[in-house]
Structure formats: structure tokens, C-alpha cells
Specification:
CATH superfamily: Aldolase class I
Order of helices and strands: HHEEHEHEHEHEEHEHEHEHEEE
CATH topology: TIM Barrel
Structural class: alpha/beta
CATH architecture: Alpha-Beta Barrel
Mean pLDDT: 86
Radius of gyration: 19 Å
Bound molecules: iron/sulfur cluster
Helix content: 25-40%
Oligomer: single chain
Shape: globular
Number of domains: 1
Length: about 350
């Protein structure tokens, strides 16, 4: 077991914000006895959040499929035969209709995802119009569109974009086994452009792609040593889609997934640690363990948040059984958060959001 550089770094109180985590330290956290790791993560969780509150997030795919990239997990890559039908960018009016429905359903943040390697400059005004219009409804805005130049990031910020999602996916050591059409550095550059433009970052990765524990530690270490911890850290469990290269990968031990959540909570104590892709296949008991380990954000259901959605009903029932409640956040027209209304986005994707 790798030695800790500083045993006091694991003390449950206090939990200072650090950006200098070493790989050995992160591996040592993963190697703790399960109950001890959960105890430490839960202690950190309580320092910064009400552990009974969970941020509820969903996402609208505004442009699905047909992506030229080769991310080995992704059904939206056009080179894999997964049955995902490529769709053009939705019209602003169609997006707005979804946004209005989201607002009526109690949403305060609206996240728009497009399966692009990066937006073309000619796409930016179309997306900017969506952002402006959605913002005008009084919703927080979030987007995931692939790589951004500094100029594009500035244009999206000027249109009113609050959050940008761009995942690093996996450990830099393992990255070349998963993606060949762009470099890890490209992703880090986009995150820098987003930060420099003054937007909040949403950045995480995927586990269960055949990586080792050391590589899971490397993913989290990379996130925790960014110049600023991501505001949201989505931890995805691989959804194996037939036709993608990762279909048939050995499933990750569920306890290892919980460990990943717990270590993310300890390393990035003020971030929203989000259960993202793969949650639908998790048992209620596994999700409960994730919440106990410090997860405090979820993607809500697979369809628009309307009554009768079985996924939503299951989530509501789980929240009730666990005594959890949606995090309360109100948003003014400038996108500032205030206590008051449900912090939720909207959902739609026939295929998983790119989250590229
Ligand atoms: S994850 Fe995003 S960038 Fe990668 S293939 Fe899928 S849509 Fe394209």
C-alpha cells in the first residue's frame, strides 16, 4: 500500500482545500478499509454541505450522434454501429419549449449537450441564441459542446452561459486506451479557456472502463490538482453499449465505485460530486452507499421531468426512503444562486450526453 506523504491529510477535521494531492496519497485513500473511507468522506461532506440535500440535474441533448471522435465508450460516435440516429442541432424555439417545460417542472438550471468534437464558429451564434433565450426565462444555463477556443468560450460567456461541462474521462496514463482523436492536453486547454472566460466548470470522468485502481486514483488526482477544483464533478459508471469497443468490459465492483465517490469527496470537498451515467442500473442500496460516501448530485431520470416518468418516481421514492431532499437554490436572471427553489435541470437524451 503506498505510503501517505502526510497522515494528517486524512484527518476528518478540518478539510482544507488542496491542489497538491500526490498519487500515493490518493491511492492510500482508495486502500483504506471501506468503513474507514466512508467515515472520512462523510465527515468531509458534513463540513461543507447538508448531507440530506442532493442537487438534482438533468440534461437536454440539443444535437445527438454523428460525432467524428472515437471515444471507446460512446454510442454517439459515428464510427460505431450503435443504433443512435444522428440529429441536427435543434432549433432555438424547440429548445426553448423544453426549457419552459423544465421551468414549469421546477427546474432552475438548463443544460444543453451537443455531440461535437468542437463547435464550428458558425454554430456559436446559434448556441448563443439558445443560451440568451433560456437565460431570459430566468434559468441558469449549462452546456457541453466539446472543445472550445478561448474566443468561443468568451462568446458563450457573453451570451450568459454559467457552467461548461468538459470531462477528462480517465487517468492521463490510460487516456490513450480510450480516445485517439484528441489529447488530454486538448481537454485541459478547453477547461482553462472556460475558467479564463469566467464560467464555472463541470468536469469528471468515467470508471469501469477496464482501468486499474491506480488509474482511478490518477483520474481523481488530475481533477483535484487542476488550478481550480471543478464546481461539479460527475462520476460516471460505464454504460456498456453494444457496438462500442468497451462493450463486454468486466464490470466494476460496486464497492469500488463507492470508493471512487468517497475519494472524490475527500479530495474536492466543496464540489458537487454527481452520480451521472450508469445510475439507472444501480440498486437503491448502492445509490444509498454513494450518498453516504459524499455524492450530493444526480442526473434525474431519462426523460423530461413530467409526472408519470417511472425513473422520476423511483428517484422520488428513494429520496423519501432515505430522508433526502432536492437541494434548494433559486436563480435570478443574472444566474446568481439564492436559497429558495429546486436546483434541477431538464433531461431528454435518447443517447447519453456527450459530456465531452
Ligand atoms: S463522448 Fe462526445 S466527443 Fe466522444 S464520441 Fe461521444 S459525442 Fe463525440
Amino acid at each position: 500500500m503506498p505510503a501517505l506523504q502526510d497522515a494528517s491529510a486524512l484527518a476528518p477535521l478540518p478539510a482544507p482545500l488542496r491542489h497538491d494531492w500526490g498519487r500515493g496519497e490518493v491511492e492510500a485513500l482508495f486502500d483504506l478499509p471501506f468503513t474507514e473511507l466512508l467515515y472520512r468522506a462523510a465527515a468531509v461532506h458534513r463540513q461543507h454541505f447538508d448531507p440530506a440535500e442532493v442537487q438534482v440535474s438533468t440534461l437536454l441533448s440539443v444535437k445527438t450522434g454523428g460525432c467524428p471522435e472515437d471515444c471507446a465508450y460512446c454510442p454517439q460516435a459515428q464510427r460505431y454501429h450503435t443504433g443512435v440516429e444522428a440529429q441536427k442541432l435543434m432549433s432555438t424555439e424547440a429548445v426553448l419549449e423544453k426549457a419552459r417545460q423544465a421551468k414549469a417542472a421546477g427546474a432552475s438550471r438548463f443544460c444543453m449537450g451537443a455531440a461535437w468534437r468542437s463547435p464550428k464558429d458558425r454554430d456559436i451564434p446559434k448556441v448563443a441564441a439558445m443560451i440568451r433565450e433560456v437565460k431570459a426565462l430566468g434559468l441558469e444555463t449549462c452546456a457541453t459542446l466539446g472543445m472550445l477556443s478561448q474566443t468561443q468560450a468568451g462568446a458563450l460567456k457573453a451570451a450568459g452561459l454559467d457552467y461548461y461541462n468538459h470531462n477528462i474521462d480517465t487517468d492521463p496514463e490510460y487516456y490513450g486506451s480510450i480516445i485517439h482523436t484528441r489529447e488530454m492536453q486538448d481537454r485541459l486547454d478547453t477547461l482553462a479557456h472556460v475558467r479564463d472566460a469566467g464560467m464555472k466548470t463541470c468536469c469528471g470522468g468515467i470508471v469501469g472502463m477496464g482501468e486499474s485502481r491506480r488509474q482511478r486514483a490518477g483520474l481523481l488526482q488530475t481533477l483535484a490538482t487542476l488550478p481550480a477544483h471543478p464546481d461539479s464533478v460527475p462520476i460516471n459508471r460505464l454504460v456498456q453499449v453494444e457496438g462500442t469497443p468497451l462493450h463486454g468490459t468486466t464490470e466494476l465492483d460496486p464497492f469500488e465505485f463507492v470508493r471512487t465517490i468517497a475519494v472524490a469527496r475527500i479530495l474536492m470537498p466543496r464540489s458537487m460530486v454527481r452520480l451521472s451515467a450508469g445510475r439507472e442500473a444501480m440498486s437503491d442500496e448502492l445509490q444509498a452507499l454513494c450518498f453516504a460516501a459524499g455524492a450530493n448530485s444526480i442526473f434525474y431520470g431519462e426523460k423530461l421531468l413530467t409526472t408519470g416518468n417511472p425513473d422520476t418516481e423511483r428517484d422520488q421514492a428513494l429520496f423519501a426512503r432515505l430522508g433526502l431532499r432536492p437541494m434548494q437554490v433559486a436563480v435570478d436572471a443574472d444566474g446568481h444562486d439564492h436559497a429558495g427553489t429546486v436546483h434541477a435541470e431538464i433531461v431528454e437524451p435518447a443517447a447519453r450526453p456527450c459530456a465531452a
